């Protein structure tokens, strides 16, 4: 048995935002034996824009990686919600107060910057964190000593068994660890089809150098959301205002017959233009800048809530247990909160017995589970409000937007609502885990 918590052997499945944060948080707490198993040959650091909310920044700052991420990001000072068809403004919400209220600004950046600096942070601890790329994990067992089979993708004949004191499943919405855990516990809960899909689009500054209207958006500090029936587009500048990022949500028409394993497809530019064919000319111009052959569409899926995230010494993390729709821009932030809390609770272990490890992981679940699922539901509700068609509900939503222009009332776009922001940004999950650990540990 390990002599101290820091001597525990910890295996992390997946090197996404949750996995990297878990690894770095544990290394910062002095854990010496952290192995990260990642299916991809390398992290690649691709992707599109990502919102860097204060609750995310707070964790990253503690881990020493926020400053370089912040230096490459764009500080958002306002958001504008607009009618997709006419470009008329429904609401304008100043956001400068966020820094003064929550200690960090609301910034936006490139996903590769976030993942890259988390990874670089991990590489500063080579004696503590080891990466195993192009390696799949299967045949997980749950017990006082959890184990799985690690298979090098390029040399499957060299598969080997890994045993760990703690197993953290950061393996995404397709998590095989979750499937195995639910099967073992006899729990019926599956991936849910949202009937929504998304395009992720990036426009580079040199593409629009002769378009002053779009250049003004790229050079600004505003998040813009164009909304229409069952569809919307959210857009903002990233990478020091050199790229304009667009993220769409629209009805899923291309994945309906696909298997549950299919989450992305090569899109058709003409189809994409048709989806937003009734949106204003400026939106049409932006979409037209996307090169042929570079349209990719994602299917948006979530998962039914789980009764538990923990079994024995195994815990689910991030999208493995609480995937969410993007309408609150909290998916990565919530995985990063998970990682910060994991580091906190394992650092507070009173001993290294499997029973204590299990209880510490249950403290992680207590701190994170209700909050994460509340945010999942808030994101879904915000999407429903944004996508209303003609009728009384839309009229009430637009009345609320109109009242907002007079400085009163809630914001139907929950991402921009001050009360929702307080719930999202005003909670320090890591601090809660540290301050309430003894009480929660005794109660589980």
Automatic annotation (TrEMBL):
Any one GO molecular-function label of the UniProt entry: FAD binding
FAD-binding domain: residues covered: 8-180
InterPro entries: FAD-bd (IPR002938), FAD-dep_Monooxygenase_BioMet (IPR050493), FAD/NAD-bd_sf (IPR036188)
Top-level taxonomic group: Eukaryota
Keywords: FAD, Flavoprotein, Monooxygenase, Oxidoreductase
Stretches of the chain forming a coiled coil according to its record: none
Gene3D superfamilies listed in its UniProt record: FAD/NAD(P)-binding domain
Pfam families according to UniProt: FAD_binding_3
Protein family membership: Belongs to the paxM FAD-dependent monooxygenase family.
Protein name from the UniProt record: FAD-binding domain-containing protein
């Amino acid at each position: 048995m390990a002599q101290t918590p820091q001597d525990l052997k910890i295996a992390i499945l997946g090197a996404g935002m949750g996995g990297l944060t878990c690894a770095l948080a544990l290394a910062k707490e002095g854990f010496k034996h952290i192995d990260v198993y990642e299916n991809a040959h390398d992290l690649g650091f691709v992707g599109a824009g990502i919102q860097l909310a204060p609750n995310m920044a707070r964790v990253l700052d503690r881990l020493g990686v926020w400053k370089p991420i912040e230096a490459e990001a764009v500080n958002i000072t306002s958001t504008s919600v607009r009618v997709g068809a006419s470009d008329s403004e429904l609401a304008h919400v100043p956001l400068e107060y966020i820094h003064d209220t929550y200690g960090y600004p609301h910034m936006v950046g490139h996903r590769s910057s976030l993942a890259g600096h988390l990874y670089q942070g991990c590489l500063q601890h080579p004696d503590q964190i080891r990466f195993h790329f192009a390696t799949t994990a299967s045949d997980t067992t749950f017990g006082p000593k959890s184990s799985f089979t690690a298979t090098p993708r390029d040399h499957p004949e060299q598969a080997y068994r890994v045993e760990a004191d703690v197993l953290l499943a950061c393996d995404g919405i397709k998590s095989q660890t979750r499937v195995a855990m639910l099967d073992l516990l006899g729990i019926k809960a599956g991936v849910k089809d949202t009937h929504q899909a998304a395009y992720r689009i990036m426009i580079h500054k040199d593409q629009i150098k002769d378009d002053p209207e779009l250049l003004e958006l790229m050079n600004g500090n505003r998040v813009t959301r164009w909304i229409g029936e069952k569809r919307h587009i959210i857009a903002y500048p990233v990478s020091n205002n050199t790229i304009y990022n667009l993220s769409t949500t629209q009805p899923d028409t291309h994945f309906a017959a696909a298997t549950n394993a299919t989450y992305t497809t090569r899109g058709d530019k003409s189809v994409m233009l048709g989806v937003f064919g009734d949106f204003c000319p400026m939106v049409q111009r932006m979409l037209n800048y996307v090169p042929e052959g570079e349209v990719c569409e994602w299917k948006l899926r979530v998962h039914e809530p789980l009764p538990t995230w923990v079994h024995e010494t195994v815990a689910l993390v991030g999208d493995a247990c609480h995937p969410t729709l993007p309408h609150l821009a909290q998916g990565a932030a919530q995985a990063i909160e998970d990682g910060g809390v994991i580091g906190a609770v394992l650092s507070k272990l009173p001993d290294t017995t499997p029973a204590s490890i299990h209880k510490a992981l249950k403290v992680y679940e207590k701190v994170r589970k209700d909050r994460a699922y509340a945010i999942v539901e808030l994101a879904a509700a915000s999407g429903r409000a944004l996508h209303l068609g003609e009728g009384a509900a839309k009229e009430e939503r637009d009345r609320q937007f109109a009242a907002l222009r007079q400085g009163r009332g809630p914001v139907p776009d929950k991402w921009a609502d001050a009360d929702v922001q307080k719930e999202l940004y005003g909670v320090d999950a890591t601090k809660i885990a540290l301050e309430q650990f003894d009480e929660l540990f005794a109660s589980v």
